[in-house]
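Lab notebook: predicted structure, single chain.

Context: the supervisor wants predicted structures on file for every construct in the current expression panel, including those that have not yet been purified. This is the next one on the list. No modifications to the sequence; it matches the entry in the shared construct table.
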Amino acid sequence: MSYKHGIEVAEKATSLKTPLSTEYAAQVIFGTAPVNLAEYPEKAVNTPIMANSFEEAKAALGYSEDWKNYTLCQSMDASYNLFQVSPVIFVNVLDPERHVKELEEMTVPVSNGQAIVASIGILLKDLTVKMATETRTGSAEVGAAAAAGNPVELTVDEDYLASFNDSGYLVVTILSSGAGSEAQELIISGKVLAPDLVTEEDLIGAYDSVTGKETGLEVLRQVYPRFGIAPGFLLAPGWSEKPNIGAALQGKCQDINGVFRCMCLLDLDTAQAQKYSDCERGIRIFGSACRCVMAETYQRRQGVRIFCGVWSDGLQQYHCEQ
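Prediction complete. Output recorded below exactly as produced.
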């Protein structure tokens, strides 16, 4: 029988990637986020929010896999999970006071003391929870029970707790000490975020000379005074392929706070740019020859990610991975 003598070393490649942290090329990203999942939804609208990690961004803005409706989430995933880049500054323009619609009243069964509403974007502050009542017989119960057919409205933190699961669905937990402890069904209504109501004007934004309030891209000038970081890149994923927004982003690249300038990344419609060599043709949609502008196309086809940049003096492909 053979024995090994001495020291033997076996090295394995680490699965951790080295994070890249820099204050000299910070991304400032404009778009929409599921702020109903944020800790303070009202404070996450038209204000720059700097996050150094995915957890920070998720707590401040919420996170959803629905990247089409909540466009900032794809940048969270790319910056923190794919490339470990920080810090990133986000500006959400989805306003839970304006961009909402009514949640149609629905009846949800209670199982193991919880009712789960499979709907994304529900606002807790406008939530109404009622307990469906049943007809009871017997004189002793008639006086104590609510009138048959009239739902009983429950009180948050007394009769139930409301939270969200990892999928962003509403979870109503019935408290055993509350009025709904024996509820078999709950009637849920309220308001839900409507990202489809966000317009180009909301993202481009404006400055109100009366209130002094800035919205949309106008919030850019708050970044340096708040954080001491000069913007390096401006992005609006899911929006910047629109000519008006693309032009507005280009205009914001110059004279930031009267001192700085940066680059912006513009989306290209993959129906017009299906491979990186099509980017030069696609950039002509914006009519731009400015060196501070880079156009980006990002597509997922057969597991291939293609990133490409277009400058005024030619084409450069800077990342492609299988």
